[in-house]
């Protein structure tokens, strides 16, 4: 199977007639996860959520370009079907379009990923245009933008006032008109996600948004039941934490009872 392309994703405006099926996207940070998710997903996101999920950091703010590059390369090596999108980490793109281009080019060169994602709306629109016009496809991300946690004060849903709702719609419209090939809408009151989905030409990817978005994304560890803290918008499709605990408990018990290794796991002496 040939790898999907960014233009093919951009055409998947599933909320419009003839727009195709909704886009399925999950995060992946490692090669084995990428291999397992790739056949089922249109896009894999190397999310900066790896800061919390893999490294135990308190937020995504400390995540570095080097971390994103290392995990991005692993995910590209583990996939052959999905479009791989890499998050630009906090501090690597906000200062100027030039800074963003250097960081994004580094990520694409180091990993072979097809596109980057960056957080922000109207303020980032010139940067989205700068990158898009220079060969770097950009996915937008509006609403609850976790890199702004120190400004927002937490991870609560956004757009509860009409003024805030209007600002989020303006943000999404600005990055879409600047050339974003898709826009993630995270943690907003549902009517905002619907308004944006109807307003912009490229696909919207919801997370804590609406089933009417053109696609959905979740953190894989969250939907697999592997990460301890999850938001309302996470649906658990498995309890991998419980299953891993049970497997490890069984292993440790067998070691202590000298049941493992058994005859099948040892190299018997040649006679
Ligand atoms: O970092 C991440 O995992 C994300 C998605 C949740 C959209 O940005
Ligand atoms: Na992210």
Automatic annotation (TrEMBL):
Question: PANTHER family given for it?
Answer: 3-METHYL-2-OXOBUTANOATE HYDROXYMETHYLTRANSFERASE (PTHR20881)
Keywords carried by this UniProt record: Cytoplasm, Magnesium, Metal-binding, Methyltransferase, Pantothenate biosynthesis, Transferase
Function per UniProt: Catalyzes the reversible reaction in which hydroxymethyl group from 5,10-methylenetetrahydrofolate is transferred onto alpha-ketoisovalerate to form ketopantoate.
Which Pfam families does the entry mention? Pantoate_transf
Specify where it is mainly localized: cytoplasm
Q: Which domain of life does the protein's organism represent?
A: Bacteria
Q: Which organism is it from?
A: Sphingomonas taxi
| Top EC group | transferase
| Quaternary structure and partners | Homodecamer; pentamer of dimers.
User: What is the taxonomic lineage of the source species?
Assistant: Bacteria, Pseudomonadati, Pseudomonadota, Alphaproteobacteria, Sphingomonadales
- What's in the GO CC field? cytoplasm
Q: Where in the cell is it found?
A: Cytoplasm
Reaction(s) catalysed (UniProt annotation) = (6R)-5,10-methylene-5,6,7,8-tetrahydrofolate + 3-methyl-2-oxobutanoate + H2O = 2-dehydropantoate + (6S)-5,6,7,8-tetrahydrofolate
CC cofactor note: Binds 1 Mg(2+) ion per subunit.
The family note in this entry says:
Belongs to the PanB family.
HAMAP family reported in the protein's UniProt record: PanB
Does the keyword section mention Transferase?
Answer: yes
Name listed for the protein in its UniProt record: 3-methyl-2-oxobutanoate hydroxymethyltransferase
**What gene name does this entry carry?**
panB
Sites where the protein binds Mg(2+)? 48, 87, 119
- MF terms (GO), sorted A to Z: 3-methyl-2-oxobutanoate hydroxymethyltransferase activity; magnesium ion binding; methyltransferase activity
UniProt cross-references to Gene3D superfamilies, sorted A to Z: Phosphoenolpyruvate-binding domains
Q: Does the keyword Metal-binding apply?
A: yes
């Amino acid at each position: 199977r040939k790898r999907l392309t960014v233009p093919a994703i951009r055409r998947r405006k599933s909320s419009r007639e003839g727009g195709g099926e909704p886009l399925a996207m999950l995060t992946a940070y490692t090669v084995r996860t990428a291999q397992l998710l790739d056949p089922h997903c249109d896009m894999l996101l190397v999310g900066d959520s790896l800061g919390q999920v893999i490294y135990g950091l308190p937020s995504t703010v400390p995540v570095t370009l080097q971390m994103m590059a290392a995990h991005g390369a692993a995910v590209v090596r583990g996939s052959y079907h999905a479009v791989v999108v890499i998050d630009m980490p906090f501090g690597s793109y906000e200062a100027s379009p030039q800074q963003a281009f250097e960081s994004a080019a580094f990520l694409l060169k180091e990993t072979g990923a097809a596109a980057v994602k960056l957080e922000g709306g109207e303020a980032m629109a010139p940067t989205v245009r700068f990158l898009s016009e220079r060969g770097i496809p950009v996915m937008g991300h509006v609403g609850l933008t976790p890199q702004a946690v120190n400004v927002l004060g937490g991870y609560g849903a956004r757009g509860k006032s009409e003024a805030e709702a209007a600002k989020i719609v303006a943000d999404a419209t600005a990055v879409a008109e600047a050339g974003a090939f898709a826009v993630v809408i995270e943690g907003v009151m549902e009517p905002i996600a619907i308004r944006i989905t109807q307003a912009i030409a490229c696909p919207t990817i919801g997370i804590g948004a609406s089933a009417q978005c053109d696609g959905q994304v979740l953190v894989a560890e969250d939907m697999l039941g592997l990460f301890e803290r999850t938001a309302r918008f996470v649906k658990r499709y498995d309890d991998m934490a419980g299953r891993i605990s049970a497997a490890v408990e069984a292993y440790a018990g067998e070691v202590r009872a000298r049941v493992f290794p058994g005859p099948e796991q040892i190299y018997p002496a040649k006679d």
